[in-house]
Amino acid sequence: MKRENIRNFAIIAHIDHGKSTLADRIMEQTKTVSERELSAQLLDSMAVEQTHGVTVKARSVRNFYHGADGQEYEYNLIDTPGHVDFSDEVAKSLAASDGAILLVDATQGVQAQTIANLRLAIKYNLKIIPVINKIDNVAADIAATEKQLRKLRPEFASRPILKISAKTGQNVHQVLEAIYQEIPAPTGEPTAALKALVFDSQYDPYQGIIADIRVFDGHLQTKQKLQLMGHDSSFTAQSIGIFNPDMKAVPTLTTGEVGYLVTGLKDVQALQVGETITTTAHPATTAIPNFKPAQSMVYAGLFPKGETSYEELKQAISKLALNDTSFHYKPEQSEALDAGFRCGFLGIFHLQIIKERLRTEYHVEVLTTAPNATYQVYLKNQQPQGEYLTITNPVEFPDFAIIDHVCESFVKAIITTPNTYLSAVMKLCEEHYGELLDIDNQQDLVTLTYKLPVSEIAYNFFNSLKSLTHGYATLDTEFLDYEPVDIVKIQTQINYAPVDALDILVPRQQADQIAHKLVEKLKYAIPRRLYPMPVQAIIENKVIARVDVPPLRKNAAVNGEQRSISKKQQLLRRQSLNKRQAARSDIKLPQSVFDAVLNLDSPA
Protein backbone atom coordinates (compact mmCIF):
# COMPACT_ATOMS: atom_id res chain seq x y z
CA MET A 1 0.00 0.00 0.00
CA LYS A 2 1.28 3.48 -0.92
CA ARG A 3 2.08 5.62 2.10
CA GLU A 4 -0.25 8.35 0.76
CA ASN A 5 -3.20 5.94 1.10
CA ILE A 6 -2.55 4.89 4.71
CA ARG A 7 -4.56 6.37 7.57
CA ASN A 8 -3.80 5.69 11.24
CA PHE A 9 -6.52 6.84 13.63
CA ALA A 10 -8.01 6.19 17.05
CA ILE A 11 -11.54 6.52 18.41
CA ILE A 12 -11.76 8.53 21.64
CA ALA A 13 -14.80 9.22 23.79
CA HIS A 14 -16.28 9.15 27.27
CA ILE A 15 -17.04 5.68 28.62
CA ASP A 16 -20.18 4.06 27.07
CA HIS A 17 -20.47 6.58 24.23
CA GLY A 18 -20.15 3.87 21.58
CA LYS A 19 -16.46 3.57 20.65
CA SER A 20 -16.41 -0.22 20.40
CA THR A 21 -19.75 -0.29 18.56
CA LEU A 22 -18.46 2.17 15.96
CA ALA A 23 -15.34 0.00 15.58
CA ASP A 24 -17.66 -2.96 14.90
CA ARG A 25 -19.51 -1.02 12.18
CA ILE A 26 -16.26 0.11 10.55
CA MET A 27 -15.01 -3.49 10.40
CA GLU A 28 -18.40 -4.60 9.08
CA GLN A 29 -18.71 -1.95 6.35
CA THR A 30 -15.10 -2.41 5.20
CA LYS A 31 -15.72 -6.20 5.13
CA THR A 32 -12.78 -6.80 7.47
CA VAL A 33 -14.91 -9.45 9.17
CA SER A 34 -17.87 -11.33 7.76
CA GLU A 35 -21.37 -11.21 9.25
CA ARG A 36 -20.79 -14.71 10.64
CA GLU A 37 -17.61 -13.63 12.45
CA LEU A 38 -18.96 -10.31 13.73
CA SER A 39 -20.07 -10.03 17.34
CA ALA A 40 -20.85 -7.08 19.60
CA GLN A 41 -17.72 -5.28 20.87
CA LEU A 42 -15.50 -7.63 18.85
CA LEU A 43 -12.30 -5.84 19.91
CA ASP A 44 -13.21 -6.17 23.60
CA SER A 45 -12.04 -9.78 23.71
CA MET A 46 -10.75 -9.92 27.30
CA ALA A 47 -12.98 -11.56 29.91
CA VAL A 48 -12.85 -8.51 32.21
CA GLU A 49 -13.91 -6.24 29.32
CA GLN A 50 -16.94 -8.40 28.60
CA THR A 51 -17.80 -8.68 32.31
CA HIS A 52 -17.66 -4.94 33.03
CA GLY A 53 -18.73 -3.72 29.58
CA VAL A 54 -15.72 -1.39 29.28
CA THR A 55 -12.62 -1.31 27.10
CA VAL A 56 -9.49 -1.96 29.17
CA LYS A 57 -6.81 -2.54 26.53
CA ALA A 58 -6.33 -0.65 23.27
CA ARG A 59 -6.68 -2.89 20.22
CA SER A 60 -5.66 -2.23 16.63
CA VAL A 61 -7.14 -3.65 13.41
CA ARG A 62 -6.35 -3.09 9.73
CA ASN A 63 -9.23 -2.33 7.37
CA PHE A 64 -9.29 -1.67 3.61
CA TYR A 65 -11.77 0.91 2.33
CA HIS A 66 -12.66 1.82 -1.26
CA GLY A 67 -13.32 5.55 -1.23
CA ALA A 68 -15.72 7.51 -3.37
CA ASP A 69 -12.68 8.85 -5.27
CA GLY A 70 -12.02 5.36 -6.62
CA GLN A 71 -8.89 4.66 -4.54
CA GLU A 72 -8.31 1.97 -1.95
CA TYR A 73 -7.18 3.09 1.52
CA GLU A 74 -5.59 1.23 4.40
CA TYR A 75 -7.29 2.17 7.67
CA ASN A 76 -5.38 1.22 10.82
CA LEU A 77 -7.95 1.65 13.57
CA ILE A 78 -7.00 1.69 17.25
CA ASP A 79 -9.87 1.29 19.72
CA THR A 80 -9.20 2.99 23.07
CA PRO A 81 -10.61 2.79 26.63
CA GLY A 82 -12.84 5.53 28.02
CA HIS A 83 -12.45 5.02 31.79
CA VAL A 84 -10.20 7.53 33.56
CA ASP A 85 -8.11 4.73 35.12
CA PHE A 86 -6.94 3.70 31.63
CA SER A 87 -5.94 7.08 30.20
CA ASP A 88 -2.43 5.65 29.78
CA GLU A 89 -3.80 3.21 27.20
CA VAL A 90 -5.38 6.15 25.34
CA ALA A 91 -2.05 8.02 25.35
CA LYS A 92 -0.20 5.00 23.90
CA SER A 93 -2.80 4.66 21.15
CA LEU A 94 -2.67 8.34 20.22
CA ALA A 95 1.15 8.21 20.05
CA ALA A 96 0.78 5.73 17.18
CA SER A 97 -2.00 7.67 15.39
CA ASP A 98 -2.24 10.60 13.00
CA GLY A 99 -5.86 11.47 13.72
CA ALA A 100 -8.78 10.75 16.03
CA ILE A 101 -12.54 10.42 15.85
CA LEU A 102 -14.09 12.27 18.81
CA LEU A 103 -17.34 10.44 19.52
CA VAL A 104 -20.10 12.03 21.62
CA ASP A 105 -23.33 10.39 22.77
CA ALA A 106 -26.36 12.48 21.68
CA THR A 107 -28.30 11.33 24.74
CA GLN A 108 -25.64 12.51 27.20
CA GLY A 109 -23.76 15.28 25.40
CA VAL A 110 -20.16 16.33 25.99
CA GLN A 111 -18.94 14.79 29.23
CA ALA A 112 -15.86 15.03 31.34
CA GLN A 113 -13.80 12.23 29.82
CA THR A 114 -14.73 13.56 26.37
CA ILE A 115 -12.79 16.71 27.22
CA ALA A 116 -9.96 14.81 28.95
CA ASN A 117 -9.39 12.60 25.88
CA LEU A 118 -9.70 15.62 23.59
CA ARG A 119 -6.88 17.28 25.54
CA LEU A 120 -4.72 14.20 24.97
CA ALA A 121 -5.41 14.26 21.23
CA ILE A 122 -4.51 17.96 21.04
CA LYS A 123 -1.30 17.24 22.97
CA TYR A 124 -0.26 14.80 20.21
CA ASN A 125 -1.23 17.31 17.46
CA LEU A 126 -3.79 14.98 15.91
CA LYS A 127 -6.44 15.89 13.36
CA ILE A 128 -9.79 15.50 15.15
CA ILE A 129 -13.11 14.57 13.50
CA PRO A 130 -16.10 15.32 15.77
CA VAL A 131 -18.96 12.80 15.48
CA ILE A 132 -22.33 12.65 17.26
CA ASN A 133 -23.53 9.10 17.98
CA LYS A 134 -26.88 7.49 18.95
CA ILE A 135 -29.01 9.84 16.85
CA ASP A 136 -31.64 7.06 16.57
CA ASN A 137 -32.24 7.08 20.34
CA VAL A 138 -35.55 8.65 21.42
CA ALA A 139 -33.70 10.51 24.20
CA ALA A 140 -31.19 12.05 21.79
CA ASP A 141 -30.79 15.83 21.91
CA ILE A 142 -28.81 16.33 18.71
CA ALA A 143 -29.06 20.14 18.57
CA ALA A 144 -27.80 20.62 22.14
CA THR A 145 -24.96 18.11 21.66
CA GLU A 146 -23.89 19.81 18.42
CA LYS A 147 -23.89 23.18 20.19
CA GLN A 148 -21.66 21.76 22.94
CA LEU A 149 -19.25 20.25 20.42
CA ARG A 150 -18.87 23.46 18.43
CA LYS A 151 -17.78 25.33 21.55
CA LEU A 152 -15.03 22.83 22.38
CA ARG A 153 -12.59 23.91 19.65
CA PRO A 154 -12.49 26.97 17.35
CA GLU A 155 -12.20 24.74 14.27
CA PHE A 156 -15.40 22.90 15.26
CA ALA A 157 -17.44 26.11 15.01
CA SER A 158 -17.78 26.20 11.23
CA ARG A 159 -17.12 22.64 10.10
CA PRO A 160 -19.88 20.04 9.51
CA ILE A 161 -20.51 17.71 12.46
CA LEU A 162 -21.18 14.11 11.43
CA LYS A 163 -24.28 12.50 12.96
CA ILE A 164 -24.45 8.72 13.07
CA SER A 165 -25.91 5.68 14.76
CA ALA A 166 -23.12 3.19 15.38
CA LYS A 167 -25.72 0.64 16.50
CA THR A 168 -27.68 0.60 13.20
CA GLY A 169 -24.85 1.74 10.91
CA GLN A 170 -26.72 4.90 9.85
CA ASN A 171 -24.32 7.44 8.23
CA VAL A 172 -21.21 5.45 9.25
CA HIS A 173 -20.11 5.63 5.59
CA GLN A 174 -19.76 9.41 6.09
CA VAL A 175 -17.21 8.73 8.82
CA LEU A 176 -15.32 6.36 6.50
CA GLU A 177 -15.19 9.07 3.82
CA ALA A 178 -14.08 11.75 6.30
CA ILE A 179 -11.17 9.60 7.50
CA TYR A 180 -9.25 9.66 4.21
CA GLN A 181 -10.38 13.20 3.37
CA GLU A 182 -9.36 14.84 6.67
CA ILE A 183 -6.81 12.69 8.51
CA PRO A 184 -3.35 13.17 7.01
CA ALA A 185 -1.26 10.34 5.61
CA PRO A 186 1.68 9.30 7.79
CA THR A 187 4.98 11.07 7.28
CA GLY A 188 8.33 9.30 7.14
CA GLU A 189 10.98 8.15 4.69
CA PRO A 190 10.66 4.59 3.29
CA THR A 191 14.35 4.62 2.32
CA ALA A 192 15.62 5.82 5.70
CA ALA A 193 16.89 3.62 8.53
CA LEU A 194 14.18 1.65 10.29
CA LYS A 195 12.45 3.35 13.21
CA ALA A 196 9.46 1.56 14.74
CA LEU A 197 7.66 2.57 17.94
CA VAL A 198 6.52 -0.12 20.39
CA PHE A 199 3.17 1.17 21.66
CA ASP A 200 1.97 -2.04 23.31
CA SER A 201 3.09 -5.63 23.91
CA GLN A 202 1.95 -9.00 25.17
CA TYR A 203 3.59 -12.27 26.19
CA ASP A 204 3.13 -15.62 24.48
CA PRO A 205 4.62 -18.69 26.22
CA TYR A 206 5.81 -20.13 22.89
CA GLN A 207 6.73 -17.02 20.87
CA GLY A 208 7.93 -14.75 23.66
CA ILE A 209 7.21 -11.02 23.61
CA ILE A 210 4.90 -9.86 20.81
CA ALA A 211 5.17 -6.10 20.28
CA ASP A 212 2.51 -3.84 18.74
CA ILE A 213 4.44 -1.42 16.54
CA ARG A 214 4.02 1.59 14.28
CA VAL A 215 6.71 1.98 11.59
CA PHE A 216 7.75 5.64 11.32
CA ASP A 217 10.72 5.27 8.94
CA GLY A 218 12.10 2.50 6.72
CA HIS A 219 10.58 -0.96 6.44
CA LEU A 220 10.54 -4.13 8.53
CA GLN A 221 10.94 -7.68 7.26
CA THR A 222 10.87 -11.15 8.77
CA LYS A 223 14.26 -12.55 9.90
CA GLN A 224 15.79 -9.05 10.02
CA LYS A 225 18.43 -8.47 12.69
CA LEU A 226 16.99 -5.82 14.98
CA GLN A 227 18.07 -3.90 18.07
CA LEU A 228 16.44 -1.82 20.77
CA MET A 229 17.71 1.74 20.95
CA GLY A 230 16.87 2.16 24.63
CA HIS A 231 17.81 -1.24 26.05
CA ASP A 232 20.81 -1.83 23.76
CA SER A 233 19.99 -5.46 23.04
CA SER A 234 19.48 -7.26 19.73
CA PHE A 235 17.23 -10.03 18.40
CA THR A 236 15.88 -11.47 15.16
CA ALA A 237 12.36 -10.75 13.91
CA GLN A 238 10.72 -14.18 14.14
CA SER A 239 7.55 -13.05 12.42
CA ILE A 240 5.70 -9.85 11.55
CA GLY A 241 2.08 -9.25 10.70
CA ILE A 242 -1.12 -7.24 11.08
CA PHE A 243 -4.29 -7.49 13.17
CA ASN A 244 -7.25 -8.36 10.99
CA PRO A 245 -8.54 -8.40 13.81
CA ASP A 246 -6.77 -11.69 14.55
CA MET A 247 -3.04 -11.94 13.95
CA LYS A 248 -2.18 -12.42 10.27
CA ALA A 249 1.44 -12.79 9.13
CA VAL A 250 2.75 -10.54 6.32
CA PRO A 251 6.24 -10.43 4.75
CA THR A 252 6.83 -6.68 5.20
CA LEU A 253 5.64 -3.65 7.19
CA THR A 254 6.41 -0.36 5.46
CA THR A 255 6.55 3.28 6.54
CA GLY A 256 3.34 4.39 8.22
CA GLU A 257 1.92 0.91 8.80
CA VAL A 258 0.77 -0.59 12.10
CA GLY A 259 1.20 -4.27 13.00
CA TYR A 260 2.90 -6.71 15.31
CA LEU A 261 6.42 -8.10 15.70
CA VAL A 262 7.22 -11.49 17.23
CA THR A 263 10.55 -10.88 18.94
CA GLY A 264 11.24 -14.31 20.44
CA LEU A 265 12.46 -12.57 23.62
CA LYS A 266 11.53 -14.57 26.73
CA ASP A 267 12.76 -12.05 29.32
CA VAL A 268 9.69 -9.95 30.11
CA GLN A 269 11.92 -7.05 31.22
CA ALA A 270 13.81 -6.92 27.90
CA LEU A 271 11.29 -4.89 25.90
CA GLN A 272 9.48 -1.85 27.31
CA VAL A 273 6.57 0.01 25.76
CA GLY A 274 7.87 3.24 24.21
CA GLU A 275 11.03 1.58 22.83
CA THR A 276 12.33 2.39 19.36
CA ILE A 277 13.30 -0.60 17.21
CA THR A 278 15.89 -0.28 14.44
CA THR A 279 18.09 -2.62 12.40
CA THR A 280 21.51 -3.86 13.48
CA ALA A 281 23.03 -3.37 10.04
CA HIS A 282 21.89 0.23 9.49
CA PRO A 283 20.72 1.63 12.84
CA ALA A 284 18.91 4.94 13.18
CA THR A 285 20.77 7.74 14.93
CA THR A 286 17.90 9.11 17.04
CA ALA A 287 15.02 7.37 18.78
CA ILE A 288 11.36 8.30 18.46
CA PRO A 289 10.35 10.71 21.26
CA ASN A 290 8.93 8.57 24.02
CA PHE A 291 5.58 9.18 25.69
CA LYS A 292 5.67 9.85 29.40
CA PRO A 293 5.25 6.66 31.47
CA ALA A 294 2.28 6.49 33.80
CA GLN A 295 2.86 7.32 37.47
CA SER A 296 1.17 5.08 40.03
CA MET A 297 -1.37 6.85 42.22
CA VAL A 298 -2.04 4.11 44.77
CA TYR A 299 -0.12 1.11 46.06
CA ALA A 300 -1.37 -2.20 47.42
CA GLY A 301 0.11 -5.58 48.28
CA LEU A 302 -0.74 -8.69 46.24
CA PHE A 303 -0.11 -12.04 47.96
CA PRO A 304 -0.75 -15.62 46.77
CA LYS A 305 -3.92 -17.18 48.13
CA GLY A 306 -5.19 -20.75 48.30
CA GLU A 307 -3.38 -23.16 45.97
CA THR A 308 -1.44 -20.37 44.24
CA SER A 309 2.32 -20.40 44.87
CA TYR A 310 4.63 -17.40 45.02
CA GLU A 311 6.40 -18.48 41.80
CA GLU A 312 3.08 -18.75 39.93
CA LEU A 313 2.12 -15.26 41.09
CA LYS A 314 5.55 -13.91 40.15
CA GLN A 315 5.34 -15.26 36.59
CA ALA A 316 1.76 -14.05 36.15
CA ILE A 317 2.51 -10.54 37.40
CA SER A 318 5.63 -10.17 35.23
CA LYS A 319 3.70 -11.18 32.10
CA LEU A 320 0.75 -8.95 32.96
CA ALA A 321 3.06 -5.97 33.57
CA LEU A 322 4.42 -6.43 30.04
CA ASN A 323 0.90 -6.00 28.70
CA ASP A 324 0.00 -3.12 31.04
CA THR A 325 2.78 -0.56 31.41
CA SER A 326 0.81 1.48 33.96
CA PHE A 327 1.05 -1.45 36.39
CA HIS A 328 4.27 -1.53 38.47
CA TYR A 329 5.45 -4.08 41.04
CA LYS A 330 8.31 -5.07 43.32
CA PRO A 331 8.75 -8.00 45.77
CA GLU A 332 7.84 -7.54 49.42
CA GLN A 333 7.86 -9.74 52.52
CA SER A 334 5.07 -9.71 55.12
CA GLU A 335 5.23 -11.44 58.50
CA ALA A 336 1.52 -12.21 58.31
CA LEU A 337 1.19 -13.09 54.60
CA ASP A 338 4.73 -14.24 53.67
CA ALA A 339 6.16 -13.34 50.24
CA GLY A 340 4.23 -11.18 47.83
CA PHE A 341 4.45 -8.00 45.78
CA ARG A 342 3.94 -4.28 46.41
CA CYS A 343 2.14 -3.02 43.29
CA GLY A 344 1.36 0.41 41.90
CA PHE A 345 -1.96 1.25 40.19
CA LEU A 346 -3.58 4.24 38.50
CA GLY A 347 -6.67 3.88 40.67
CA ILE A 348 -8.98 1.49 42.51
CA PHE A 349 -10.76 0.31 39.34
CA HIS A 350 -7.35 -0.41 37.80
CA LEU A 351 -6.52 -2.52 40.87
CA GLN A 352 -9.80 -4.42 40.49
CA ILE A 353 -9.14 -5.10 36.79
CA ILE A 354 -5.60 -6.34 37.50
CA LYS A 355 -6.90 -8.71 40.17
CA GLU A 356 -9.57 -10.10 37.82
CA ARG A 357 -7.08 -10.49 34.95
CA LEU A 358 -4.75 -12.47 37.21
CA ARG A 359 -7.61 -14.80 38.04
CA THR A 360 -9.18 -15.21 34.57
CA GLU A 361 -6.10 -15.06 32.31
CA TYR A 362 -3.42 -16.62 34.52
CA HIS A 363 -5.57 -18.69 36.94
CA VAL A 364 -3.91 -17.06 39.94
CA GLU A 365 -5.79 -16.22 43.14
CA VAL A 366 -4.48 -13.24 45.12
CA LEU A 367 -5.17 -11.53 48.42
CA THR A 368 -5.13 -7.73 48.22
CA THR A 369 -4.15 -5.43 51.08
CA ALA A 370 -5.56 -1.96 51.58
CA PRO A 371 -4.23 0.61 49.07
CA ASN A 372 -2.10 3.53 50.26
CA ALA A 373 -0.30 6.57 48.87
CA THR A 374 3.42 7.48 48.74
CA TYR A 375 5.19 9.35 51.56
CA GLN A 376 8.60 10.93 52.02
CA VAL A 377 9.90 10.49 55.58
CA TYR A 378 12.71 12.71 56.92
CA LEU A 379 14.54 11.34 59.97
CA LYS A 380 16.11 13.17 62.92
CA ASN A 381 19.86 13.72 62.48
CA GLN A 382 20.36 10.38 60.73
CA GLN A 383 20.56 11.33 57.08
CA PRO A 384 22.37 13.93 54.98
CA GLN A 385 20.51 17.19 54.47
CA GLY A 386 17.65 16.80 52.00
CA GLU A 387 17.65 12.98 51.94
CA TYR A 388 14.52 11.04 52.83
CA LEU A 389 12.94 7.60 52.85
CA THR A 390 10.29 6.91 50.20
CA ILE A 391 7.52 4.86 51.81
CA THR A 392 4.96 3.01 49.68
CA ASN A 393 4.27 0.35 52.30
CA PRO A 394 3.03 1.22 55.83
CA VAL A 395 5.15 -1.64 57.23
CA GLU A 396 8.30 0.31 56.29
CA PHE A 397 7.15 3.43 58.15
CA PRO A 398 9.86 4.12 60.79
CA ASP A 399 9.28 4.49 64.53
CA PHE A 400 7.69 7.81 65.43
CA ALA A 401 10.55 8.65 67.84
CA ILE A 402 13.11 9.06 65.02
CA ILE A 403 10.88 10.91 62.53
CA ASP A 404 11.51 14.60 61.96
CA HIS A 405 8.65 15.22 59.53
CA VAL A 406 6.66 13.49 56.78
CA CYS A 407 5.67 14.75 53.31
CA GLU A 408 2.70 13.34 51.40
CA SER A 409 2.18 13.17 47.62
CA PHE A 410 -0.37 15.61 46.22
CA VAL A 411 -2.04 15.64 42.81
CA LYS A 412 -3.63 18.29 40.67
CA ALA A 413 -7.12 16.93 40.12
CA ILE A 414 -9.11 18.30 37.16
CA ILE A 415 -12.78 17.52 37.71
CA THR A 416 -15.24 18.28 34.91
CA THR A 417 -18.88 18.15 35.96
CA PRO A 418 -22.29 19.49 34.87
CA ASN A 419 -22.92 22.78 36.68
CA THR A 420 -25.99 21.32 38.45
CA TYR A 421 -23.65 19.19 40.57
CA LEU A 422 -21.13 21.96 41.27
CA SER A 423 -21.90 22.50 44.96
CA ALA A 424 -21.97 18.75 45.71
CA VAL A 425 -18.60 18.20 44.01
CA MET A 426 -16.99 21.14 45.81
CA LYS A 427 -18.31 19.85 49.15
CA LEU A 428 -16.86 16.39 48.39
CA CYS A 429 -13.44 17.89 47.62
CA GLU A 430 -13.50 19.96 50.81
CA GLU A 431 -14.33 16.84 52.85
CA HIS A 432 -11.20 15.25 51.37
CA TYR A 433 -8.98 18.23 52.28
CA GLY A 434 -8.92 19.61 48.74
CA GLU A 435 -7.69 23.12 47.94
CA LEU A 436 -9.41 24.88 45.03
CA LEU A 437 -6.89 26.16 42.49
CA ASP A 438 -9.08 27.18 39.55
CA ILE A 439 -12.62 27.09 38.23
CA ASP A 440 -13.64 27.40 34.58
CA ASN A 441 -17.05 27.36 32.90
CA GLN A 442 -17.39 25.56 29.55
CA GLN A 443 -20.98 25.72 28.30
CA ASP A 444 -23.03 23.56 30.69
CA LEU A 445 -19.88 22.01 32.18
CA VAL A 446 -17.67 23.35 34.95
CA THR A 447 -14.00 22.40 35.22
CA LEU A 448 -12.65 22.48 38.77
CA THR A 449 -8.94 22.26 39.50
CA TYR A 450 -8.13 21.05 43.02
CA LYS A 451 -5.00 20.17 44.93
CA LEU A 452 -5.75 16.90 46.71
CA PRO A 453 -3.68 14.52 48.85
CA VAL A 454 -3.34 11.14 47.14
CA SER A 455 -4.31 9.33 50.35
CA GLU A 456 -7.71 11.02 50.23
CA ILE A 457 -8.50 9.93 46.66
CA ALA A 458 -6.89 6.48 46.86
CA TYR A 459 -9.89 4.60 48.20
CA ASN A 460 -13.39 5.66 47.27
CA PHE A 461 -13.15 9.24 46.00
CA PHE A 462 -13.86 8.51 42.34
CA ASN A 463 -16.80 6.23 43.19
CA SER A 464 -18.24 8.95 45.43
CA LEU A 465 -17.76 11.49 42.65
CA LYS A 466 -19.61 9.27 40.15
CA SER A 467 -22.40 8.64 42.66
CA LEU A 468 -22.91 12.34 43.40
CA THR A 469 -22.98 13.29 39.71
CA HIS A 470 -24.77 10.15 38.44
CA GLY A 471 -21.74 9.27 36.36
CA TYR A 472 -21.52 12.60 34.54
CA ALA A 473 -18.27 13.83 36.12
CA THR A 474 -14.73 12.73 35.40
CA LEU A 475 -11.47 12.90 37.30
CA ASP A 476 -8.15 13.57 35.58
CA THR A 477 -5.09 13.68 37.85
CA GLU A 478 -1.43 14.49 37.50
CA PHE A 479 1.32 14.48 40.12
CA LEU A 480 1.88 17.90 41.70
CA ASP A 481 4.38 17.76 44.58
CA TYR A 482 5.10 16.54 48.12
CA GLU A 483 4.02 18.67 51.10
CA PRO A 484 4.45 18.24 54.89
CA VAL A 485 1.59 16.46 56.68
CA ASP A 486 1.00 15.07 60.17
CA ILE A 487 0.72 11.32 59.57
CA VAL A 488 0.66 8.44 62.07
CA LYS A 489 0.63 4.68 61.62
CA ILE A 490 -2.16 2.55 63.04
CA GLN A 491 -0.81 -0.92 63.84
CA THR A 492 -3.21 -3.81 64.32
CA GLN A 493 -2.79 -6.75 66.67
CA ILE A 494 -5.02 -9.83 66.52
CA ASN A 495 -4.81 -12.13 69.51
CA TYR A 496 -1.85 -10.04 70.72
CA ALA A 497 0.13 -10.84 67.54
CA PRO A 498 0.94 -7.97 65.15
CA VAL A 499 -0.52 -8.25 61.64
CA ASP A 500 1.66 -5.98 59.52
CA ALA A 501 -0.51 -6.36 56.41
CA LEU A 502 -3.28 -4.42 58.20
CA ASP A 503 -1.10 -1.40 59.05
CA ILE A 504 -2.43 1.88 57.66
CA LEU A 505 -1.22 5.50 57.59
CA VAL A 506 -3.78 8.18 58.50
CA PRO A 507 -3.84 11.90 59.40
CA ARG A 508 -3.29 12.44 63.11
CA GLN A 509 -6.50 14.42 63.57
CA GLN A 510 -8.54 11.43 62.30
CA ALA A 511 -6.47 8.66 63.88
CA ASP A 512 -8.56 8.10 67.03
CA GLN A 513 -11.84 7.94 65.10
CA ILE A 514 -10.41 5.65 62.41
CA ALA A 515 -8.84 3.32 65.01
CA HIS A 516 -12.20 2.73 66.71
CA LYS A 517 -13.95 2.16 63.37
CA LEU A 518 -11.21 -0.24 62.31
CA VAL A 519 -11.47 -2.57 65.33
CA GLU A 520 -15.28 -2.57 65.08
CA LYS A 521 -15.07 -3.60 61.42
CA LEU A 522 -12.52 -6.30 62.15
CA LYS A 523 -14.66 -7.69 64.97
CA TYR A 524 -17.15 -8.96 62.37
CA ALA A 525 -14.66 -9.75 59.58
CA ILE A 526 -12.08 -11.92 61.40
CA PRO A 527 -12.95 -15.64 61.46
CA ARG A 528 -14.11 -16.65 64.95
CA ARG A 529 -12.48 -19.37 67.04
CA LEU A 530 -13.36 -21.33 70.14
CA TYR A 531 -11.96 -18.60 72.37
CA PRO A 532 -12.32 -14.81 72.37
CA MET A 533 -9.60 -12.96 70.47
CA PRO A 534 -8.70 -9.34 71.27
CA VAL A 535 -8.24 -6.94 68.32
CA GLN A 536 -6.21 -3.84 69.19
CA ALA A 537 -5.36 -0.68 67.27
CA ILE A 538 -2.03 0.81 68.38
CA ILE A 539 -0.74 4.31 67.63
CA GLU A 540 2.75 5.34 68.73
CA ASN A 541 3.00 2.38 71.12
CA LYS A 542 -0.33 3.16 72.80
CA VAL A 543 -3.46 1.01 72.52
CA ILE A 544 -6.15 3.39 71.26
CA ALA A 545 -9.01 0.97 70.62
CA ARG A 546 -9.82 -2.63 71.46
CA VAL A 547 -12.63 -5.13 70.88
CA ASP A 548 -12.91 -8.89 71.42
CA VAL A 549 -13.91 -11.18 68.57
CA PRO A 550 -16.61 -13.33 70.21
CA PRO A 551 -15.83 -17.05 70.45
CA LEU A 552 -17.57 -19.95 68.78
CA ARG A 553 -18.99 -21.64 71.89
CA LYS A 554 -20.67 -24.99 72.10
CA ASN A 555 -23.57 -24.44 74.48
CA ALA A 556 -24.27 -27.78 76.17
CA ALA A 557 -27.47 -26.46 77.72
CA VAL A 558 -29.27 -25.76 74.42
CA ASN A 559 -29.52 -29.08 72.56
CA GLY A 560 -32.93 -30.35 73.65
CA GLU A 561 -31.53 -32.61 76.38
CA GLN A 562 -31.11 -32.21 80.10
CA ARG A 563 -27.50 -31.29 80.89
CA SER A 564 -25.98 -30.45 84.24
CA ILE A 565 -24.38 -27.14 85.00
CA SER A 566 -21.12 -28.94 85.77
CA LYS A 567 -21.10 -30.45 82.25
CA LYS A 568 -21.48 -27.01 80.71
CA GLN A 569 -18.73 -25.59 82.91
CA GLN A 570 -16.44 -28.49 81.95
CA LEU A 571 -16.89 -27.70 78.25
CA LEU A 572 -16.21 -24.01 78.82
CA ARG A 573 -13.04 -24.79 80.81
CA ARG A 574 -11.83 -27.02 78.01
CA GLN A 575 -12.43 -24.22 75.48
CA SER A 576 -10.61 -21.68 77.65
CA LEU A 577 -7.42 -23.77 77.42
CA ASN A 578 -7.14 -22.58 73.82
CA LYS A 579 -6.23 -19.14 75.10
CA ARG A 580 -2.70 -20.42 75.56
CA GLN A 581 -2.34 -20.11 71.80
CA ALA A 582 -2.52 -16.34 72.17
CA ALA A 583 1.26 -16.11 72.20
CA ARG A 584 1.37 -16.96 68.52
CA SER A 585 -0.84 -16.09 65.56
CA ASP A 586 -1.68 -18.77 63.02
CA ILE A 587 -4.85 -17.06 61.83
CA LYS A 588 -5.58 -17.24 58.10
CA LEU A 589 -7.07 -13.89 57.15
CA PRO A 590 -9.63 -13.87 54.30
CA GLN A 591 -9.97 -11.02 51.79
CA SER A 592 -12.98 -9.68 53.73
CA VAL A 593 -10.64 -8.63 56.55
CA PHE A 594 -8.65 -6.37 54.23
CA ASP A 595 -11.82 -5.13 52.54
CA ALA A 596 -13.00 -3.96 55.97
CA VAL A 597 -10.14 -1.43 56.00
CA LEU A 598 -11.45 0.02 52.71
CA ASN A 599 -14.99 0.44 54.05
CA LEU A 600 -14.36 2.36 57.24
CA ASP A 601 -16.89 5.03 56.21
CA SER A 602 -19.76 2.56 55.90
CA PRO A 603 -21.71 1.18 58.88
CA ALA A 604 -20.21 -1.82 60.69
TrEMBL record:
Q: What task does this protein carry out?
A: Required for accurate and efficient protein synthesis under certain stress conditions. May act as a fidelity factor of the translation reaction, by catalyzing a one-codon backward translocation of tRNAs on improperly translocated ribosomes. Back-translocation proceeds from a post-translocation (POST) complex to a pre-translocation (PRE) complex, thus giving elongation factor G a second chance to translocate the tRNAs correctly. Binds to ribosomes in a GTP-dependent manner.
Q: How does the protein's chain sit in the membrane according to the entry?
A: Peripheral membrane protein
Q: What CDD domains does UniProt report for this protein, alphabetically?
A: lepA_C
* Coiled coil, from the record: none
Q: Tell me the keywords, alphabetical order.
A: Cell membrane, Elongation factor, GTP-binding, Hydrolase, Membrane, Nucleotide-binding, Protein biosynthesis
Protein's UniProt keywords contain Nucleotide-binding:
yes
Its protein name is Elongation factor 4
Q: Which reaction does it catalyse?
A: GTP + H2O = GDP + phosphate + H(+)
Question: Which gene does this sequence derive from?
Answer: lepA2
- Annotated GO MF terms: translation elongation factor activity
Give the subcellular location: Cell membrane
Originating organism: Lactobacillus xylocopicola
